[in-house]
C-alpha cells in the first residue's frame, strides 16, 4: 500500500490528510508511475479550497510530477517500464504512486534530474505558452511580470531575457527583488514600498509595457492596466491574492483600447502535439543553460500541509516540491 495526500472536504491546509492509498493497476492506455517528486502550485490551493471544484470527493491533490514507469497497460507504445517521465495536468500527483493516461506524460532527458522536471513542468510550460504564444516576446518587447520571484516568475524572467525583451518584475521584499534580478529581470519593483504603476512609467520613460503577465489578481487590478501602452495586452493567468470582481469591459477602452485574456496552461495543451512541442521547448531552453530551474523548498509528502501554509503566506521563493 502506498501513501497519498487526500482531500475529503474542501477548506484550509488542515484538510490535507496523509493516508494509505491504492492507485490500482494501469488499464488500457495507462501507465503506473513510481513518483520521485510532485510539484506544488497555486492551482493545488484552488482545488483544496474549492475555488476550482473537483469532480469528486474525496480526491488526491496535485497536478504535476515526475517519476519512473513501473508498469504499462494494454496498448501503451509511448513508454516502457523504467522510462523517466514527467507530466502536468494529471490529477492526483501528491502520491507515492499514480496511474495516469500515458499520453499525458513526456520522456525526461537524461541530463535533467527528475526533481527538477517535477518542479519545471507546470511552471516552465506556463512560461512557455505565455512568452511564446499568448504574447510572442522578442527584442522589441517591454513586459511586466508580477510575482517575479515565484516559480513561474523566475523561469519567465530568464526566458524573456533570452528572447531579448526588456523585463520588469514586481516582488514583495528586498530578498525577492534581489533573487529576481539574478534571474533575468532588468528592473524589479518592491510593491510593498513603491507604487508599481508609477515605477513602470518611470522605468519606461512613459512608454509603458506591451504586455503585463498577472498571476496575482485582486491586489494588482486595475493597476496592471495602467502599466500598458495603448492596445497592450493584459494576460491574467492566476489570482493568488483573491478572485477579481466582475469587470466592466468598458475599462479596457477607457485605458487605451487594451486587450485582455484569461489563459490557462491546459487551454494551450489541447492535444499530444501541443504537449510535446511545449515540453521540447522547455527542455531545450533548460539544456542550453538559458533557463535554470531553482527549487527553493523541498518538503516530504507528509508535510503537504506545511507546504501549503508556506505557499499561501508568501514565504516561498522559486519552485516548491514534495519529495517522495
Automatic annotation (TrEMBL):
SMART domains: PKS_ER. Keywords: NADP, Oxidoreductase. InterPro entries: ADH-like_C, ADH-like_N, ER, GroES-like_sf, NAD(P)-bd_dom_sf, QOR-like. SUPFAM superfamilies: GroES-like (SSF50129), NAD(P)-binding Rossmann-fold domains (SSF51735). GO terms for cellular component: cytosol. Gene3D superfamilies: Medium-chain alcohol dehydrogenases, catalytic domain (3.90.180.10), NAD(P)-binding Rossmann-like Domain (3.40.50.720). Pfam families: ADH_N, ADH_zinc_N. It comes from the Bacteria. GO terms for molecular function: mRNA 3'-UTR AU-rich region binding; NADPH binding; quinone reductase (NADPH) activity. This is Quinone oxidoreductase.
